[in-house]
Amino acid sequence: xxxxxxxxxxxCTIHLMPVSLTPRTPTLFAHIAAGxxxxxxxxxxxxxxxxxxxxxxxxxxxxxxxxDELASSNARFKFTGDQLRAxxxxxxxxxxxxxxxxxxxxxxxxxxxxxxxxPTWEQEKTLGALLASAPVLSNDDKWTALTLxxxxxxxxxxxxxxx
Length: 163
Known about the structure:
Lipocalin, globular, 3 helices
């Protein structure tokens, strides 16, 4: 059988941290880093030193939250400078953001508090909990899809605009 045309891209993130334990460690680390980068590229991943540059100026549609479709078609993320605006479709959450050690760090996180009917209210509480947990950020090789994952929650996003 052939491959499905609906195959999802594989998401991955690799962060390399230099360690200097012995006189040979820098050389050894350079070889390991080169091997990991090559493996990531062959797997269709992108290894970037600064994921923030790929996110700044971009807008994303929140596609799923904990595996469920969003109740609102207005669920969005927008990264502008050091500010993130996120919404599950009713209220807006904003805060300063940065990526550090594969984690999306946001804070302080502020949120409007309008009444939201139906499942949107529960989804907004879930999104707030996810963002407050410093979720792990992973991306596909072309930065067209993001996944945010914490121990309790996950979200999948699809890029709307490029920076």
